[in-house]
Amino acid sequence: MTKKLKYLALGDSYTIGEGLPLEENFPHQLVHLLNQSTEQQFELPEIVATTGWTTDELQAGIAERQPQAPYDLVTLLIGVNNQYRGRSLEEYKQQYASLLDQAVAFAGGNFRHVVVLSIPDWGNTPYAREKGFDEDKVRQEIEAYNAAKQEITLQRGVRFLDITPLTRQLSLDTSHLTADQLHYAASVYREWAECLAPLVASMNF
Length: 205
Hints:
Strand content: 5-15%
Oligomer: single chain
Radius of gyration: 16 Å
């Protein structure tokens, strides 16, 4: 029997699928898609992520959990809470670069087996409007974070998946959101998984 591939997902609430059963987050849906549609067979994902985590908190979480490399696939999605808390872009760039280097190391040094996801734009959600956030300001800050994130990612040859436009298309359609009117429903994470699956299927394991 072929040994199953290992997958490590690093991130925050968008990685764990805040408000949803575990199997409905995007890492679990990705594994399900791959196992059903390709010859590649993955173990259930190992997830190091917590709602509210910033880049430095993810670093601390990794240090505490000590994931056992190497992994065949690593995804990284982090940064929204840096933006939400008003942390500086320069701090984010430094800490994100360090996290990306860790992600590559977890993939056994193979940058081709790492995929970075862009930061979703939460500024057009009912939650944001109810709390009085300026949608345009959130958009501009998310764009700045994502531009820096993409530049650092591509410099290292790592794949960058831009899921931000998908999140902006949601607008106020609450069927795509969980009860908190901020985080996404399983259908959205399914879209992310469907975007990720061809990238992973093309990797040479």
